Amino acid sequence: NPHKKLGPQINYTITGIDAGAGEMGAAQKALTAYGLKSKNWQLQTSSTAAMTSTLDKAIKNHQAIVITAWEPHWMFTKYPIKFLKDPKNVFGKTENLHTIARTGFKQSNPGAYKLLSQFHWDKTQMSEIMLKVNDGVDPAKAAKNYMKKHPKQVAAWLKGVPNGHGKKVKLTYVAWDSEIASTNLVKQLLDKKGYDTTIQPLEAQPMWASIATGAADASVSAWLPTTHGLYARQYKGEFVDVRVNLKGAKTGLAVPKYMKNINSIEDLKS
Ligand code: PBE
Questions:
Q1: Residues in Cβ contact with 63 at an 8 Å cutoff, skipping those fewer than 6 apart
Q2: 136 CA distance to ligand 1 centroid (A)?
Q3: Averages of pLDDT over each 10 residues, the chain, 270 residues
Q4: CA-CA distance, 231 to 93, in Å (whole number)?
């Protein structure tokens, strides 16, 4: 109902994701920074699956909804949604996905490190795997299919990487759709070169801790500088920032495009 105020329509509730997500911390900060907390707005903790299913229902019924959103993710392909402007930059200006490694990994496994230092792609390429996995394709299979389709890119990633002869590599990740895609792909690339790669899904904090303590070798799931900035500061000097593997990630609040009057986080107040 466009004539009714937004807040009461959705019980002043932003539909969030899991409590451990970096973005939830930023969303809490946004509530304070934009004076929404004092207007009774609240952030509801749920999960990615619950959030996208609530979003699906709202869109089917053409109802109002405010979510914590991020890109790359298939939600932007599947649903007509838009990020709300964030003039106070609470969610940060630019966000990239970084590959991080334990200190000493380069020395103990220079070949695998070389591959990691050469791996980078873009949102469109990542979406190819992400959408397949969302359609129910097994992530390992989707990664292998991607490699078949893009032999030149694979050759560039593997260029000069020596054979691993069964050397073990342990990657940790957080099971967000984006990192399911990238981690499975990097595992397949390493395995193709003869490395013996295991991948382990963890929550964000343990994922960072696994690299900092050396329990795992590397991860392609670091969202920086804002979303995981807390962990990067906490573990400063205890990990190697190998490279940016994907540019132009973004986090923020989003609404369906049919909510024409809501374009900035500031508009939630009115
Ligand atoms: N997310 C969005 C991660 C990174 C950005 C859910 C994929 C997080 O919030 O920690």
A1: 9, 57
A2: 22
A3: 79 94 95 95 96 98 98 95 98 95 98 98 96 97 98 98 98 96 98 98 95 98 95 97 98 98 94
A4: 18
CB of residue 188 inside a 6 A radius of ligand 1: no
Cα first-last separation, the chain: 15
> Which stretch of DSSP H or E encloses residue 110?
helix 110-118
| 204 within ligand 1 shell (Cβ under 6 A) | yes
For residues 59 and 226, give the distance between their C-alpha atoms in angstroms, rounded to a whole number: 29
Stretch (H or E) spanning 248: strand 239-256
Is the separation of the CB atoms in 184 and 129 below 8 Å?
Answer: yes
Assigned token pair, 205: 């904090």
Could you give the domains of the chain?
Answer: 6-91+251-268 (3.40.190.100), 95-249 (3.10.105.10)
Long-range contacts of 26-29 (CB under 8 A, 24+ apart): 26/90, 26/91, 26/92, 26/226, 26/227, 26/251, 27/68, 27/253, 29/90
The ipTM assigned to this model is 0.94
Ligand 1 centroid to residue 21 C-alpha, Å: 5
> Among the atoms of ligand 1, which is closest to the Cα of residue 223?
4
